[in-house]
Task: structure prediction
Amino acid sequence: MEVIIQPNAEAVGRYAARVVTRVMRGRLAPVLGLATGTTPLPLYQELIRLHREEALDFGACSTFNLDEYVGLPARHPQSYRSFMQEHLLSRINVPPERVHIPDGMAEDIATACADYEEAIRKADGIDVQVLGIGTSGHIGFNEPTSSLRSRTRIKTLTDRTRRDNARFFGTEEDVPHHVITMGIGTILDSRRCLMLATGAGKAPAVAAMIEGPLTAMCPASALQMHPQVTVVLDEAAASALTHGSYYRWVYENKPAWQRD
Ligand code: GLP
Result:
């Protein structure tokens, strides 16, 4: 894992945008894996700025989101489809027919999940998957004890995650219990993973992901098995790492041509 420590959340967003644009320049039809949550917002703001001010073109891109709540109609304000529309997709030029977000209202969820996997395969896989991390160590909505080889499927949220996400809904009771999420195996199939974490609340999960054992109790630790992961942290999220000075030295001494 490449660990990059930046001074604050805005710098994390700008660094992540450099990774995404570098991947986009290297592909004729880039496939972007997207995440929801507060963490990627500075990245999305920077991508929007690059689109508006520097003509960054998303016209050839496809996107696949990690997850969606089951039972929320697409236009529900807390659906991840609404979130993506509001914070990114309505402000850039990805063709709507190439935007993919799991359908939380599907009547046959198992078939919808299999179709989602098939759509990713048909698009020739995900070039870069943006990820955040839950305080439980989840990626997507793969909660602790998720199979490290899981594929897109329905999952039940833990109380901890429902509490964490209640801030968007008003009350905890309103947070759905079920979600559709790409599996850990699906995420690991991406050609590159771009994990972002900011704030002291994420520090224990970040340390477990990078320096802890590979374990289903911290699903993000599965990224240790991926050959190309870039983890971009602010100082607070990096504060529980025991090898912080090593990661900084490696980054500062990286040849210019290898930098994003
Ligand atoms: C949510 C999402 C994850 C996200 C995580 C952290 O539950 N399913 O994809 O990474 O929580 O969210 P935040 O960035 O708001 O802390």
Observations:
- The mean pLDDT is 97.
- The pocket of GLP is lined by residues 35-39, 66-67, 132-134, 140-141, 161, 165 (CB under 6 Å).
- Helices lie at 9-25, 41-54, 80-87, 109-122, 159-169, 184-188, 203-211, 244-252.
